[in-house]
Write a structure and sequence with these properties.
The chain is an all-alpha fold. Among the domains are: 120 residues; 103 residues, Cytochrome c/b562 (Four Helix Bundle (Hemerythrin (Met), subunit A)), CATH 1.20.120. It contains twelve helices and no strands. The longest helix is centred in the first third of the chain and has 31 residues. The protein is globular and about 50 Å long. The chain starts with a helix and ends with a helix.
């Protein structure tokens, strides 16, 4: 009897829950038959509607990205860098500061001053073969002063650069042969350069700041300097991560110089400048060299190594069809 009394409240509770559940279900069913009230859609004016496409998919170009394929961060960074470099290469009139900085220009000019001091010693040595080295030195100097003239004003010798460009351009052209006259000119340019580095004012005549690049230098001596930067230095210094670490500053210097030369040899007036394939090789070389310099800043050996491999490919592909 006691056991039966305990079950009565439980049964009553279950009956109450069932009743309430039935009432709730009936209420929900009743509300579901009523129309749902929603906010009215906004009415946009014509000037707002004209700012958007009716269907954006009709305006998209190219294949849609495959988001299911994951890429490593380093690969994404490299692809972003390559894409930026390609866009940069396609745009004419790239700012010089994006390729070569003021410190690299000044350092290379000072180094060349020391080199020329050793190469221009006596007429016999000059005529015996040193004139060929001087042709390269003076041509590179003419290019550097041309770049400095069009570079940012903080570059040292910025004001004197147009006149110096023309002086060294003429010396570079004349050093195609080794004679007493070209030796005298080379010796004078040697003294001018030494005084300039020591801080004396240049005595070069004033000239137009914007260069006529066809008159600055021949392509062969610039290509010789490019070959030195690529094959004799960058390739060697990027053979191992240890060498990369030891020569990081030099890698950046040579890469920036290579990027500047690659830009110059693709300018109007140089051989093949209007050949689309040649221009593509020059652009690829410039982009790869710039990526080497950027990799030094990031202390990224792998990126630098891949970029110098791209330099090698661009040079090899170009040499198959173009010489000189």
């Amino acid at each position: 009897m006691t056991h039966l009394r305990r079950k009565v409240p439980v049964i009553a509770s279950l009956a109450l829950v069932a009743c309430l559940s039935g009432q709730l279900a009936a209420l929900v069913a009743a509300q579901s038959d009523r129309p749902v009230k929603r906010a009215r859609p906004p009415k946009w004016s014509a000037d707002v509607l004209d700012a958007f496409f009716g269907d954006a998919r009709e305006r998209l170009v190219g294949e849609r990205p495959e988001y299911s394929t994951e890429q490593a961060p380093s690969q994404l960074a490299a692809e972003a860098s390559n894409a930026a470099a390609a866009a940069e290469a396609a745009a004419p009139g790239t700012a010089w500061s994006k390729l070569i900085d003021a410190d690299t220009i000044e350092t290379e000019i000072k180094r060349l001053a020391q080199t020329i001091d050793c190469d221009v010693t006596t007429p016999s040595e000059f005529k015996g073969g040193k004139y060929q080295d001087c042709r390269r030195h003076f041509s590179v100097l003419a290019m550097l002063f041309a770049v400095a003239a069009e570079h940012d004003p903080e570059v040292r010798w910025h004001d004197a650069s147009p006149g110096l460009r023309d002086l060294f351009a003429r010396a570079g052209y004349n050093c195609k042969v080794g004679t007493d006259q070209t030796y005298q000119e080379a010796n004078q340019r040697k003294q001018d350069l030494a005084e300039l580095v020591r801080g004396s004012r240049s005595g070069a005549a004033s000239a137009e700041r914007e260069a006529d690049w066809s008159q600055v230098a021949d392509r062969p001596p610039l290509m010789q300097r490019l070959n030195i930067a690529h094959e004799e230095r960058l390739t060697k210094w990027l053979a191992t991560e240890r060498e990369f670490a030891r020569h990081a500053d030099d890698v950046r210097h040579e890469a920036q110089l290579a990027a500047a030369i690659a830009d110059v040899i693709g300018r109007e007036g140089f051989d093949y400048w209007d050949d689309e394939q040649y221009a593509a090789y020059a652009h690829a070389l410039r982009a790869a060299a710039s990526d080497v310099a950027a990799a030094v800043k990031l202390d990224d050996f792998e990126q630098a190594r891949r970029a110098v491999s791209r330099m090698t490919k661009a040079c090899a592909d170009c040499h198959e069809g173009y010489r000189g």
